[in-house]
Amino acid sequence: MSLLNESTLDSSLQEDEEEDELELPSFMKDREPCSITEGMCVWCKFKKYPFWPALVKSVNHKNKKASIIFVDDLLLDKNKFRKGMCVSLRTLKPFDCEEREQYITTARETYHRAIDWCVALIDDYSIRIACGSFSGSLAEYCVDDISYPVRREFLQGPSRMTFPSNLLMLEEDNLDCQTGGPHCRRAPSKKLLPDRSRAARDKANEKLVQYIVKARGVEKHLQAIIAGRKASRWLAEFLHRSRFLKWVDTYLEDDAQLEVLVNYLQSVCESVQNTQLSVELDRIRFILDVLLPEAVIGAIAAVDNISLEKAEEKYMKGPVFSEREIEEFNRQIEKEVKMKTRSLGVQQH
Questions:
Q1: HSE toward the beta carbon, residue 154, CA cutoff 13 A
Q2: CB 277 within 8 Å of CB 228
Q3: For a tag on the chain, would you pick the N or C end, based on fewer CB atoms within 10 A?
């Protein structure tokens, strides 16, 4: 975060912070601020909301303030830049403090699964840091593959979880618009509707997954390939490839859909007896490089009612991105290049 953003945020939240300090529980008013450091996981008490897990971005001990970001669903988006929120050190307590269970119980009364998910995420992160299986910040852990087993609880839940920070942003937007503040989102001359391209692709891909997994529409075809009774261009390429690529084009963009499909393909693999394929082959690579494209192409042909040739052509082209998605991607690349250039410039000086 730039110094300009920090100073603007400090001034805009100064009044709120004074209000927060007046509303603090009595047991916190007379105690000294705890030892809070950058990168630390803490509990933060803000306004009317219960204590909530947060990550400390920076600390100003002279002014007894800290910049924090709340642990919520926005941490899952690695392309989204999070500004820190300036709070008093007296509103923070270490995540493993004695009152931890009390804070969880209180937050659970309103936010149910959301607080349990946040706590599970931080606990798993702490364990992996302690045993050395991961090194990095909590924000980096949240977008890394190693955290997916915990993150999928959010992705596969029956409904989207609500976090205090979500409601807080809505409150600030409404307040800005009422007072004509600098962050007021004034209505543009032409209403810009949300880009539903990704949602539309996920919905279409869900039909493919249902056809493959639920209807078992390509199961016999896959079993024949595994048993060696049917030829496959994907299998031929797999067997003659000198080295494997580090990335796999899965066609599916949704992690939950991909996990369901891969688990199903593993079960198909295990169901075939006396396979002519070598047992020494890497099963995961075989599933991703052979069975997955065969299954998806077969499903595209059946669901879209087109030939296998056209289905394969559609698979090879991959997802069709909208102009807004491409523009957003290009902006993100430009931003990362600028940040990298600045970093190199600082190191050289």
A1: 23
A2: yes
A3: C
Q: How many CB atoms lie within 10 A of CB 225?
A: 23
Query: What is the C-alpha separation between 83 and 110, in angstroms, rounded?
Result: 25
With 0-12 CB in 10 A as exposed, 13-18 as middle and 19+ as buried, what is 349? exposed
C-alpha distance from residue 236 to each of 153, 230, 232, 300, 312 (Å): 37, 11, 6, 22, 16
| CA–CA dist 142, 150 (Å, integer) | 9
> How sure is the predictor about 28, in pLDDT bands with cuts at 50, 70 and 90?
very low
**How many C-beta neighbours within 10 Å does residue 28 have?**
13
H or E, element range at 92: strand 92-94
Packing angle, helices 219-227 and 255-271, rounded to 10 = 50
Question: What single DSSP character describes residue 86?
Answer: E
Contacts of residue 86, defined as CB under 8 A and 6 or more positions apart, other chains included, come to 6, 9, 10, 13, 17, 65, 66, 67
Given a contact cutoff of 8 angstroms between Cβ atoms, the answer to whether 166 and 218 are in contact is: no
Residues sharing a CB contact under 8 Å with residue 128, sequence separation 6 or more, in sequence order: 134, 141, 146
Q: Three-class SS of residue 169?
A: helix
Q: Are 164 and 50 spatial neighbours (Cβ–Cβ below 8 Å)?
A: yes
* Alpha-carbon torsion (46, 51, 56, 57), positive or negative: negative
Per-residue tokens: 120 = 């599970």
Whether the Cβ atoms of residue 227 and residue 275 lie closer than 8 Å to each other: yes
Helices 292-304 and 255-271 meet at what angle, rounded to 10? 110
Tell me how far apart the alpha carbons of residues 54 and 70 are, in angstroms, rounded to a whole number. Answer: 4
**CA atoms in the 13 A half-sphere facing the CB of 121:** 31
The tens digit of pLDDT for each residue in 170-205 reads 666 555 444 555 544 444 444 555 667 888 898 999
Tell me the three state secondary structure of residue 280: coil
Angle at 338 between CA 336 and CA 340, to 5 degrees: 70
